[in-house]
Design goal:
three-stranded antiparallel sheet; 20% strand; alpha/beta; 365 residues; 43% helix; 15 helices; eight-stranded parallel sheet; TIM Barrel; 2 domains; single chain
């Protein structure tokens, strides 16, 4: 199963080890997003070299194509994707709600038409667990209801209550050898977030995730909510902040006590020519880099920087639409995020996390 051993704290920040069936992983952790059982354009060997030990795949997409039955025929996602380390899967609910051409949410689940072929589907808590069981990831996520930004307090209450009921249904049918994380909802209401956390803590869930953030609210409001909530979430279970975010989000989240993060930013931004560096973001599209001979970040040890690929060359590849440009920039951004959480962990172990966070945020600008 999956559990966390906290080995050091510094304020609310924590460092530890997440123990999974596919290895023990130092925390805090950043998971790249492998929507289709692959982190876009990168091989398992490249992810391994970057220090990735856990990525998250998308239940909705893999259910619709190629089908969880085909993945199960391979023995699960690890064999299907030839990945030796840990894997998590989300529940598919967010995609069913946001991507489906037509959808309806009821107590039963999400009824929708596939965005691929228009076929009718029902994603219930039971079906989500069945699909995630066939995908055979180390960590499965419960089906939840994420209320959009701007929802009324009554709608937030209803979403949290339904999420609790769905967590109970997921627990009733999940594979006994697969970890299940619950998802705390409640928008920006501190009272509702804490109340929902207590409801989920009463259930035999293996970890607790914080969902419903980064859905349109100001970053400052999200940060304020995290700083208040996360330290009050059960410290004996892994704490996972879903779909967040920027380097600043990670630094503040770790300071609040988050153990695990995921976000599409490293690879999505790379495909759009946006690169992360120790001194802030760099847009390779900018004409100022057309003749720059230096690498993205001279202090970075990723294959793109270590290999000496110049900013001018990467800009040329990007403008020419060459896949090598996407790959090199994705490798850089993934490596940057892994180095960021590794450095944060070292700061917790040294006992100077607040000072490290202040210096790092100042450099980022």
């Amino acid at each position: 199963m999956v559990e966390i051993e906290v080995t050091a704290t510094c304020g609310d920040a924590r460092a530890g080890v997440l123990k999974t069936p596919h290895g023990s992983i130092p925390t805090p952790i950043f998971m790249p997003v492998g929507t289709q059982a692959t982190v876009k354009s990168l091989s398992p060997a490249e992810l391994d070299e970057a220090g990735v030990r856990l990525f998250i795949s998308n239940t909705y997409h893999l259910w619709l194509r190629p089908g969880s039955e085909l993945v199960a025929a391979h023995g699960g996602l690890h064999e299907f994707a030839r990945w030796p380390h840990a894997i998590a899967t989300d529940s598919g609910g967010y995609q069913a709600f946001s991507l489906a051409a037509r959808r309806d949410v009821s107590e039963e689940g999400f009824a929708f038409r596939s965005h691929l072929d228009g076929s009718k589907r029902l994603l219930s808590p039971e079906e989500s667990m069945r699909v995630q069981g066939e995908l055979n990831a180390d960590i499965a996520m419960q089906l939840d209801v994420c209320a959009p930004a701007g929802s009324s307090f009554a709608d937030l209450v209803d979403a949290a209550a339904r999420t609790t009921r769905w967590a109970e249904r997921c627990l009733a049918v999940k594979r006994p050898d697969q970890a299940l994380f619950g998802i705390i909802q409640g928008g920006l209401s501190d009272e509702l977030r804490l109340r929902h956390a207590r409801e989920l803590e009463a259930l035999p869930l293996d970890g607790l995730a914080l969902g419903g953030y980064s859905v349109g609210e100001p970053p400052e409001a999200m940060h304020a909510s995290l700083v208040k909530l996360v330290p009050q979430v059960d410290p004996k279970r892994p704490r996972y902040l879903m779909g967040v975010g920027t380097p600043k989000d990670l630094i503040i989240g770790i300071g609040a006590g988050v153990d695990v993060f995921d976000c599409v930013l490293p690879t999505r931004n790379a495909r759009n020519g946006q690169l992360f560096t120790r001194t802030g973001r760099l847009s390779i599209k900018n004409a100022r880099y057309a003749r720059e001979l230096m690498p993205i970040d001279p202090e970075c040890g990723c294959p793109a920087c270590r290999g000496g690929y110049s900013r001018a060359y990467l800009r040329h590849l990007y403008r020419a639409g060459e896949i090598l440009g996407h790959r090199l920039m994705s490798l850089h951004n993934v490596h940057y995020y892994q180095e960021l959480v590794r450095s944060a962990r070292e700061a917790v172990l040294r006992g100077d996390y607040a000072e490290w966070a202040h210096r790092t945020l100042q450099r980022l600008g």
